[in-house]
Write a structure and sequence with these properties.
With 277 residues, the protein is mostly helical. The protein has 9 helices and no strands. Helix 3 packs antiparallel against helix 4 (100-110), helix 6 packs across helix 9 and helix 8 (218-240) packs antiparallel against helix 9. It is flat and about 60 Å long. The two termini are 33 Å apart. The relative contact order is 0.11.
Length: 277
């Protein structure tokens, strides 16, 4: 078996093993005790191992030639990797018990995507600084909103269990609902700033490359719709105190627009038109 394939499978298995561990220690009905600080430390170290391996594989995939390569599989894998990194860094600040069991299975699948869905061809114009900045900021924005969407799903589950009076298993390890809501808006706030920079850098890149403002295409329209949704949510939170189910619905709607903005256009370009976007 090719060494690269072995590396992909080994990274996925490490993520999967961590997913099983976090399920057994956080979500399994028989395990409801809070983790000790010593366990948290070795768990962070354990997550770092596949995170580094995943980074090496991504680097090899993206920089496989003279130009950057970023197909739909690599892009999705990069967003998943950045999401795990954001979670890992955030675990030093916030108690996010229970989220690990949701993030790790996604990482196990995400790290395999560059192998399962290889890029059709390298990206053009990757030597431009404006493009590199735009790409980095865009991936970070997607990652923050990915984590926010996973956070919303956990909040929805927690709220339903609280309403029926059946709070059990891993949900007992989650922070209080109001704390989770505060973390959610912190994630959305950072993601919104990054998305604003992404749209702005996209305009700069377009003007630098083509000498005209950003084209009003499928990707741009859905990106601006997502920006408008998240901006309205943050404004509603500040002025009208929006929270709870309203915040959850707006968050998932904005994330759906982002998914359609990038991955919708990538699917069309890679698999229908067979050319780089």
């Amino acid at each position: 078996m090719d060494a690269l394939i072995v590396a992909y499978l080994a990274t996925a298995l490490l993520y999967a093993a961590l997913a099983v561990h976090f399920w057994r220690t956080r979500w399994a009905p028989a395990r409801q005790a809070r983790p000790e600080p010593a366990r948290n430390r070795w768990e962070r170290g354990a997550v770092l191992i596949p995170l580094i391996l995943h980074a090496v594989l991504l680097y090899r995939s993206v920089f496989s030639g003279e130009q950057l390569t970023l197909g739909i599989g690599i892009a999705a894998s990069l967003i998943v990797w950045l999401s795990v990194l954001i979670y890992w860094l955030g675990s030093f600040v916030h108690r996010v018990e229970g989220l690990q069991a949701v993030v790790m299975p996604a990482a196990a699948l995400g790290c395999l995507l560059p192998w399962l869905i290889p890029a059709a061809r390298p990206l053009p114009n990757t030597e431009l600084l404006a493009f590199k900045a735009h790409l980095l900021v865009s991936m970070l924005a997607y990652s923050f909103f990915t984590i926010a969407s996973l956070h919303v799903l956990l909040m929805t589950l927690l709220e339903k269990r609280l309403h029926v009076g059946q709070l059990r298993s891993g949900l007992t390890a989650l922070p209080p609902l109001l704390t989770m809501e505060r973390i959610l808006f912190q994630l959305i706030g950072v993601g919104f700033v990054l998305l604003t920079l992404s749209l702005g850098s996209g305009i700069v890149f377009s003007e630098e490359m083509f000498g005209r403002p950003l084209d009003l295409n499928h990707k741009t329209v859905f990106g601006m719709l997502s920006w408008g949704i998240f901006g309205a949510l943050l404004l509603g939170r500040r002025r009208y105190g929006w929270r709870g189910r309203v915040a959850m619905r707006w968050t998932l709607s904005g994330f759906l627009m982002l998914v359609l903005a990038y991955f919708g256009s990538r699917i069309v370009m890679d698999f229908v038109l067979h050319r780089a976007a």
